[in-house]
């Protein structure tokens, strides 16, 4: 059972969800749980495993959901008698610890050019788990991308079809040509990514989006794309374009949404 609980926790984290693991650390007297018992509590209030059931478990689940919201670990102590918080006749005291698992936010950069180089440096400053994908082996290495957490040599569209993408994944498409960028966008547009942005002029973006619509991609899906990418900071310098991209991603990460329609609505597709 314990292995299954840990497996469920891992699976939820991989889906980009926060999870609480509650463990009983001290038992005194007559209590419904046993020392070392643990359970998982998920964001939607569902659970896996048990620490003894009853009023104790109900109160611990409630506290765990509160601390999932705060993204903080905490300890708890409950008196288990008719004078304590749980108002039962067991008699005893129980202590425990709530550990909150928060999935890491991940930046995937499809392309290994100048903008990608500056972007990966900036992303490390805000603790994004950074992945760089490009088929050019001479570029995708620690010499160029020393701050990257993952370096993957291969065609980005093929890699991303197999990659675990969730709501905490931010995808930046900054490839070397229209064709590759189109394939990458097509491979991720139906994913759960929290952000999909693509570099390019309005002409390039319009051409690519029209092509995707002709392939049957819905306009609702197209509206998920942040293009032209990044906050417009009126610069063509790669390092400043990278800053604009990361600023846009930070807004999405911290606020959950961003009104980018003013950009994409000006593009005919």
TrEMBL record:
It comes from the Bacteria. Residues 107-249 form the XdhC Rossmann domain. Pfam families: XdhC_C, XdhC_CoxI. Gene3D superfamilies: NAD(P)-binding Rossmann-like Domain. Residues 15-78 form the XdhC- CoxI domain. PANTHER family: ALDEHYDE OXIDOREDUCTASE MOLYBDENUM COFACTOR ASSEMBLY PROTEIN, XANTHINE DEHYDROGENASE SUBUNIT A-RELATED. This is XdhC/CoxI family protein. It comes from Tepidibacter hydrothermalis.
